[in-house]
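ZP: hey, is the flavin-adenine dinucleotide complex queued? I don't see it on the tracker
AM: it wasn't, my bad. submitting now with these inputs:
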Amino acid sequence: MLKVTNIRVPVGEPADRLADFCARVLKVPPTAIQNFRILRKSLDIRNKGRLEHVYTAAVDVPDEPRALQKAAGRAIPYQPALFEPPNPGPELLEHPPIIVGAGPAGLLAAHQLAQMGYCPIVIERGRSVRERSRDVRIFDRGGSFDEKSNYLFGEGGAGTFSDGKLTCRNTGPDTDRVLEILADAKGKPSILYEAKPHLGSNRLPAVVKALRQQIIEMGGTIHFDCRLEKLLVESGQVVGLETSTGYFPTRVVVLGIGHSARDTIAMLNEIGVPIEFKPFQMGVRIEQAQQRVTQVQYGKSWQAQLLGPADYTMNVKAGTQEVFSFCMCAGGYVMPSVSQEGYFCTNGMSRSFHESPFANSGIVVTVDAANVADSGFGHDPLAGIRYQAAIEKKAFELAGGDYHSPIQWARDFIDAKPTRDQPPSSYPRGTKPMNLADFLPGPIAKLLADGLLLMDRQWSGEFLEGATLVGPEARGSCPVRFPRDPVRRESIGIGGLYPIGEGAGYAGGIVSAAVDGLRSAKAVIARYKPFHR
Ligand SMILES: Cc1cc2nc3c(=O)[nH]c(=O)nc-3n(C[C@H](O)[C@H](O)[C@H](O)COP(=O)(O)OP(=O)(O)OC[C@H]3O[C@@H](n4cnc5c(N)ncnc54)[C@H](O)[C@@H]3O)c2cc1C
């Protein structure tokens, strides 16, 4: 089999001509192409007069050595690296392993453990995805906030109503396996090869539900409305959990609590689980007209009309510090990324149709330990959480205390003057015009303003044209890390505790969290025999 790269196909060519373009690269007749499979598909928009899809494909041809020679470096022999779970280890488990948190990290860890016969128990503080979908709809329409069931807590974790972008910097068999599991669980096959795979928040609930059903069919159990309240440790070894619904004995806890379980992180810190500060991102979310973004990115050619709404990534240097875009949602909605009563922060999502007239994206800077200490929040491991929380609380209060989002014209933010009229926004609960710098730390507001101007320059004035800012965008990443052994993947200092995913500080996104969960499940498998009930 050959891997053929850089197969360039102009946008607008019928899909069934793809193999012909591949044949041209290999200089063989189209009939010689067999078992054609797309490995990767991306879009090259550098030349607005000729937009091209760029494919990598795996194919069989009758005379491989000759095709390799003719392809002039654009084909290589291909042997796919396959995912292989480890052989089960020798240690005995008296009780099933427990996974705390049914986000992408926890669900994928549970899936792998269930598949290998470990009968994992998943506990999740929130509700099932069906009830949760109803709860967030009620909230969006102005209903009261539910600390148990919201955009961050509940089955599927923060991933469920996320944008569903499945991009991930990791590559290799573990990542491929995660994407295969997601595609198989009511995802879609194209996520296996798209350079920017996207499911959308409308599809994710079905994926999450299918994953749960598979875990249960393979011997796992899931408890909703069940919150970890205390980790029980004896002589440096996990021995069980106290939860809101009772006691669970276990010597293996896979901890996938996400970055917003501030109460649980505080409890773990108090009982002596090693936790350290981690730099994190802070900023605002920009909203622009999607049509403008698409025109800047794709141009106005007939080819551009065939593509859906465009996205972008931005990265500029304001002085020595980077200001960058984060979680860009084409044709999307700003939503409240809130898990605690009395705090406010934004994030974004889109559905698979990208139907909203707005584009939105986080615009953030990195906050380090010195920035946090300089702002008076101290040096301890939880200082970053207090820093985030203080900004979120202030934003909540300044916007009137009803989860309305602070909003400001981007130009007003740069000119340091409050917005007085009511700009448009996709945010569902209503917005409150103000000056976002009233709740952002001064140095962060200054960096963001400088960065936005540089971005605008890159887009010849189109980036800020008609753009608004909402925020704070405070939870783009986790402000703590749980140090762990790189091979055994256990917490350093607490035997049997496997911190995973974004909340542990080892992931930043759906797929990276899921891969992290899968890898820790492999570490558990390599150590213990399967647990049989
Ligand atoms: C609005 C939004 C949009 C996003 N868009 C994208 C995107 O497009 N692409 C992308 O890759 N990433 C996106 N992300 C980020 C992504 O969702 C997270 O990186 C990912 O969900 C992290 O997975 P996780 O399993 O580590 O944690 P989480 O998904 O946060 O899951 C943690 C789970 O643990 C549960 N939990 C917490 N404490 C306890 C406890 N004490 N007891 C029991 N259960 C507990 C929580 O209820 C939650 O369900 C988005 C996030 C948000 C909020």
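AM: back. The first helix runs from residue 18 to 26.
ZP: great, adding it to the tracker
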